[in-house]
Amino acid sequence: MSRPILLFPDPRLKKACAPIGRITPEIETLAADMLAAMYAAPGVGLAAPQVGVLLRLFVMDCTKDPDAPRAPIVMIDPQLEATSEALNVYEEGCLSFPDQYAEVTRPAEVTMRWTGLDGATHSRDFQGLWATCAQHELDHLNGKLFIDHVGPMKRQLITRRMTKMKRELARA
Predict the structure, then answer these.
(1) Is residue 137 part of a domain?
(2) Annotated catalytic, 137?
(3) Rounded distance, CA 147 to CA 97, Å?
C-alpha cells in the first residue's frame, strides 16, 4: 500500500526523527509502503517524515535506466560515516515540493552505515546521484530540507510557490 506524501510547509517535515532500534513487522510494512509511494510518485528517495512518520528510516533507488532492475535500499537509523572533500552540484527536487528544483552543493562521495530490514549493519560508499540522494534523505531525518541549502531569495520563492499550491489544493 502506498502512503500519501506530505507537502511543504507541513510542520512535520521540519522535525528531527527518533531512532528505530528494533526491526518490527510495522517497520517492514512502513518500508514497503514507502518504496511503493516513491516508485509511484516517481522519485529516487523518500524519508519517513515525508509520509508523516517521525522515525529514522528512508528508502532510495537511484537507478535511472528503465531497463535495469530496481535496486531499492532501505536505511534504518542511517549514519553518515565519511564525506569527500570534493563537492558536487546537483539540481535537487523533493517529493514534498512537487515541480520545485534548486541547485544544491554537497560532498560528491559519502560513506553511509545503517541497519537493514535483515537486522544487520550495512556500510557502503555512494557517489554521484546516489550520494546526493542519501544526504538529501538523511537531512529529512534531521528536520532539514533541500531549501535550507539555498540562498534566502530562492528559499523564499519556493516557499511562496508551495504555500500557494497547498492553498489551491485545499480549495479543489
Answers:
(1) yes
(2) yes
(3) 10
Closest by alpha carbon to 101, among 55, 50, 161?
A: 161
Rounded Cα distance, 93 and 138, in Å = 15
Domain that holds residue 98: 11-171
pLDDT over 90 (residue 59): yes
- Looking at this protein, which amino acid is placed at residue 50? Q
Whether the pLDDT of residue 1 is over 80: the answer is no
86 CB-side CA count, 13 A = 8
Angle at 115 between CA 109 and CA 117, to 5 degrees: 120
In a domain, residue 1? The reply is no
Domain count, the chain: 1
User: Taking 90 as the threshold, does the pLDDT of residue 40 lie above it?
Assistant: yes
> For residue 33, what is the domain's CATH number?
3.90.45.10
- On whether residue 95 sits in a domain, the answer given is yes
Residue 4 in any domain: the answer is no
Q: What's the half-sphere exposure (Cβ side, CA atoms, 13 Å) at 79?
A: 9
Q: Give the amino acid at 156.
A: Q
* pTM of the shown model: 0.95
From the list 28, 81, 85, 137, the catalytic residue is 137
